[in-house]
Amino acid sequence: MNPLEYLSQFPRELIASSEGRRLLTRDDPLLFAIVYLGHHLRRDDGPMSLAQFHLDLAEYAKTWMNPDDAGRHCFIAPRNSGKSTWLFTLLPIWAAAHGHLKFIAAFSDSANQATQHLQTFKGELDTNELLRKDYPEFVQPLMGGNVKRYVSQSQEMIQQSNGFSFSAKGVDSKSLGMKIGNTRPDLLLLDDVEQVESNYSPHEAEKRKRTILDGIFYLNDRANIALVGTTTMSNSLIDQIRKVGEYRREFELAKSLQLNQDSSFETSLQSESNRADNIDYVSLSKDNLTSSNLVSSTSDHLETIEHAFSQSVTEQGIKSLESETTPSLETSECNDSVESIGSLSSRRNQGIDRQDGFINEGLHKSVNNDSDNLLTSAQKSDLKSVSVSDGTSTSISSMRQTDDQTQPSFFEKQQAELEKFNIKSEPNRGEADIEQTEIDDSIDAELQWVIDERINVHYYPAIVVDSEGNEQSWWPEFKSMAILNRDRHTRTFAMNMMNRPVNVDAQYWNEQDIVITEAETYLRTLISVDPAVSTKTSNDYTALVVVSLASDGKVYVRHAEQLRLVSTELKERVNDLIELFDVGLVYVETNQGGNLWKAVFDGIKANFRSVHQTEPKSLRAARALDYYRKDKVRHTRHFDQLEEQMYSFPKVAHDDLIDAMGTGVHYFLSASSQPKAVRKTYI
Asked: Where is this region: Disordered (predicted)?
């Protein structure tokens, strides 16, 4: 997203005046960041850009204005996403300048890291001319009584004349009882509070958790808490929080599917009376059970943006402010009548002569030539009435990023195939904003602390999959899909970009074992199913892996997914895959459920065959690895969940995809006399 598109909705006359800027940005942290701190929104001197992650952070910061909305939130995003820039600099400066917060206490893994963030914050107060002009009390350090010296301007603490204080410390620093006078922190920021994997261990992670929960969280039990970071180690604190967020999403999905099944009979009984009474009931069929019903997300469809005066955005932007102080803007043009407001608003958005110049040059030229005297009393009154609570402020979440990056041709075929599914698995959206909800009591004990501490999880993977199965970058202007696809097979990518770490001491697959290519011709295809008997989150997943024997004699893994479906829903998904990949055999492991699966898949559109495994999982995995090492197995594309299990095995919570993959591969490669699976024809 181009921030200047957002900026273009506001009248240039107001942006050019100090009072106009203050009033417009009072309840709008995104506008504040663009106007005052736009240089932080550029990467390598390129144009400004925003990801959905940044828009959501700005929307979240609005909760700081209301003490009753205080909550605990964890934002998990790829490395170099601008997490520290937004939560240590842009948003705190906005909140402090407008008096929304009085005391911020920030913590990082080391004291040096925390003080560097504070120095960046303080540097803006010292050098940002526009900020210094509009908020003189905020940028001025607090002087101590009759003594002409600063109260606190150290590397760890600053206190400003408007009553704002900012403390930055290492997470292990002594912080119990932290307060200034009677004021305790009203915002606690924790940024990258875990060490890198080489200096970290499960024991150290447990100690760090106790420090955070017992020492920092209760500096003020009514404060806002924002924890932000990237995973540094398998089962680190951030990794545990991500797992809970995904458990919540899966729980909601399973609950909705169960509701769908339970309501189908009742719906059929009510259908006749509903038609008679002409009453519309909400349908819970699978076709209407979209992800928007399951998770709270800010990735909505792009809507018309309304500015502070409730007027629609035009296609034109704001002219360069080089002409903001020209004689054409005389006081006589702005009389005290109500009509002047409409005239002022109708003249806005007359085009952007030079978009970058607007921020870099034009806006800052107004520092020494302010146009406050051009605002009439009527205009000032109208501006002061702007509020979040009146429903007229801009909704940041209504703006959606788009990815125009062309997918590599290698992946186009698979993407097209995925779009044909009638039933979609839950997408890993750019942000899975998981509301607090009841989770099955059997959740892992080591994760229970996340629920007990009421932490809301916001997870942003680097590769976003929409409800149609299409992939895009979480921040296209920063990293295109071509770059992400180039690196996605590595363990460092899994940990730093997807926040799905792989155990470094795994004993089986590594990155070199997986070869991505497509075969010219597929001779025989099967679906290997490792089913679960329940959709409860405590159970394993149902794994579906499509495996084909190709004309070159190699076996190709063409599709892999894990989901929580049973009964008719599972049968329908398998039928979809049969049609999509021209499958001749459904090969089902019956260790759990026994003959149940023959009944479940009765009437399937392919041959059915069951297998009861007697060999240990480790032996089956080792045999599958041997096939890979002998270059007998290829993948047609990257399957993130399968690869995560392969790289982590045997230290992995779920290994269903490995089981299903190994079973299917062994079926084709175990002997040359396997019976040929003939596809059934239905009329």
From this structure: 316-353, 378-407
